[in-house]
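S1.2 Input.
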Amino acid sequence: MNIERNLALEIIDETLEEKGDENTGFVIDNDEKAEWALRKIAEERAEAQRYINVCRSMILEYEEKIRNKEEKTRLKLSFLEEQLHRYFEQVPKKATKTQETYKLPSGTLKLKYLPPEFKRDEELLLKWLKDNDMTEYVKIEEKPNWAELKKKVNVSGGKVVSEDGQIIEGVDAVERPPVFEVDI
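S1.3 Output.
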């Protein structure tokens, strides 16, 4: 009897592998089949994890190669750019209010004059704007506090209602089906 059951389970296993996600007519209708299915799930998860681990290892290896190549390239380019900058300092340049340029057949060397970077203390700036009656430069952002409101609402027939029974506009409750899980 056990030999027949094992043979049947092997046939089911082969059928599942061949047909993939298709409905094979296989039904779990006793403890032995359920136990087999649990073992099969554990095997599939273990094999998938092994495969994923190999791929991740290869990814890490390639990421290291990428980092090494990027660093070598950065160093080479840094050296060449520094040499071009030194050369640029020695040649006559076309100067404008915002930059100096020197054109060559393969490209242009530029020295750009950047505008200042503004480092702001938001609180101090906000106080200064209010003190100097310049509130047109103050943003006021209104946003619902959903985390707090959610504690005070109920769901009735797909509608979200307040504690006093009013339907809250702008929020719909979408019912979701329960989720079946298998823990191994």
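S1.4 Remarks. The longest helix spans residues 31-90.
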